[in-house]
Design goal:
Elements lengths: L2 H23 L3 H26 L3 H30 L5 H17 L6 E7 L3 E6 L3 H22 L5 H22 L15 H4 L1 H13 L12 H28 L2 H6 L4 H27 L4 H25 L3 H16 L2 H13 L4 H19 L4 E6 L2 E7 L1 H27 L2 H20 L3 H5 L12 H15 L11 H30 L4 H29 L7 H37 L5 H33 L7 E3 L1 H11 L1 H6 L3 E6 L6 E3 L1 H20 L8 E9 L2 E8 L28 H11 L3 E6 L5 E8 L8
Amino acid sequence: MSPFVFSCILVAFTSLGLGFFVFIRSSDKKLGTIWLLFSTSVAGYGIGNVWLDSTQTQEMTRWALSADYGFGIVWIAPFFYHFVCTFLDMKRARSISIHYLVGFVFVLIVSTPLFFKRVDWMFDSLYFGISGKCYPWFLLWWMGLVTYSHYLMVRSYRSVSTTKRNQIKYFFLATAIGFTGGSLCFLPNFEIHLYPWGNFAVVLYPVIMSFAILKHHLLDIHVFIRKTLVYSLVSTTVAAIYAGLVTLLAFLVGAHNQMSVVFSSPIDVAQKSFGYGCLATAILSVGLGTFVFAKGWKKPVNRLWFLLSLSVSFWSFGLGMMVYSLSFGEAEFWQTWFLYSGAIMIPVLFLHFVTCLLDVHQKGLLICSYVISVVFEAINCIHRFAAVIPRAPFNFYTFPLPPYKFYVIFYFTVALYANALLFQYMQCSTGLRNQQIKYVLLGSLVGFCGGPMTFFMVFDIPIFPYGVYAVPLYIVIVSYAIFKHQLMDIRVVIRKTLLYSLVSAVLAAVYVATITLLARVLGEQYGSVSAVTSALAAIFITLLFNPVRLRFQRFVDRHFFREALDQELLREATSGFVHEIKRPLANISLPAELSLMDLEDLKNKRRPLKDVLPKLEQRLQYILHQTMDAGNKIEAIREFSNSNGKPLEELDLAGIIRNSVSIEGSLLRRYQVKLMVNIDDDLPRINAHAKQLEIVFANLIKNAAEALNKADSSVKRIIEVRAYKEDGKVTISVKDTGPGIKRENLPHLFEPYFTTKGANGMGMGLYLCRQIIQVHGGTIRASNEPSGGAVFQIILPYEGQGSRE
């Protein structure tokens, strides 16, 4: 594998990962969708170059080049331009459409000699297309569009808020570095023999973007971060596993001469790509299993998931190494001790995991399944389970012996029964439990549909086992369920995890590469590498690896994630708190002052008791009500800021809306505003924090009332609150008949400290509203009605909940 192809693999994984992360977390789904398309096109460029590395003929190279440009490179520029225009709130629909059309035209000619007149073998590593007549025009358009997009960011920099400036700064830095480095890859197309080392710079753009998301809420993604000892525990555990696996691998390298096969033998495209899929599955599976185990090793369900993940990892790693083997002995080794030692345990461990997750008692069935699995393992150990034979397109593949056929029946019976249990319990569960089961079922269906495709070639059915590429998706789905739906009771609050994981992965890659290189050097100098020598080498590098990792984490803690001294986060938290508490406290002061004046009159006998007492009673009740309101808001904000706070409850949304209206009743009467409340009769119940949503609705009603109070006296003062369900969501709208929102203010309404009230406003009300709605899994947006007035729409999920009675 050449350095350029290695950098393309990094580009593909990091870009696609960041794209899906932004798509899932972004409050603006349109922006998130465009970013996902841009990231997918960058990933397509990386994957296309990996395919180019595997081609053996010029005809195949032509196809790979066409796919590389047609699905990746051509679309990077227009997607990026579209994203920049949307990010900066620029209305350029016609211009965006024209550039998409230009891109489509270039895609049509990318496979013709007009684009590339020929392909040349360069740098003794891979093919590059040599520029045809149209290629310079394509590059001029592509580079011009990218440069112009960056110019738009620079031009908009001074006319936006401080928060937006920080976002633009990091976004510009990330993409400028990425595009500058990636543009060097165009030089070989003009027969300029400069190796495309700049492609490694493309990997930096996801790193910088990730930091900006964490630090400056880039793309309106707010990630709350918290440090725990678990990170150190997980890192140490992963480092130990790496040390153990690499020690074993280094020994096997010397004993079986395996690494020369993986990196040096002329294997074909299918074999190499199949190996990449198996390796990805093995690494991702053991990584997720270790994480789950470290987060809750005392829980049986977590321990079972770890064992299941380990079995999947053994199966996948053994399968990949078996097909690469050079001799029958090596293939049999990988098949027996890795491939089937893992595969045999997968169905029974999955069934055990499902019964534990669902709290279903199936003791007899589990004992019977484990006994059958142990019998199969014993047969496998004496090499009577399956044999290995040469089979294209691999060096070796599995051949079934009689017990293997019974294993296949056992495998499908147990797997189908476990998935049937999941489906049955998903149908009768609700709320968070329903979501957890749904994602486990989805992940298992993907895994069990993809993995068994390896059975076809075992029984001489000529179907390539493409399903191996789908197996890593089950890990992605389960990981998402852990973060989003607290699967296996794991509550994850992302803080330094993203940055730590990225750096740990880079250091681990350097560590593994160093061990492998050292093992090969020792093998060249002293022949085969002994297990003792490999272990000493791994321990030596590990002693260097851990201090470097810990030193970096301390550096990050000191310079970027200072909990007690992060003034920006501290200001946002205190401002939001003050904003909500100031109003009830201010409402207390006037009636308290009037009550003191009445008591003074009563004391000096200027007024009789019968005149003063009713007013005192009324004011004291009002003060008590405001005090309770302040206490409720304090509790709501405390729960909002506490990641391990009270869980969401199933509530009547209509009641929450009516309580919010009553909170602002006195303000509406004072401003002489008419309030209209329209709530559908079939409005569903939702999972929510009542007091937090009351803060949101009350803020929107108060803002609308204050806007109407400043409007022209001829304007009818009406606020309409409407709640209805639509397309699996609940929509709550607050509409007024006031002057509306200025167009230039619309993009900044939900930014912290942005206010149109001058010294009377803090700019934290709508910001806090958006934070609360995002925590509830919803979105909030503002717009102007064509007939006049502003409208705020809140969209909340209610899936899995029943309707109001």
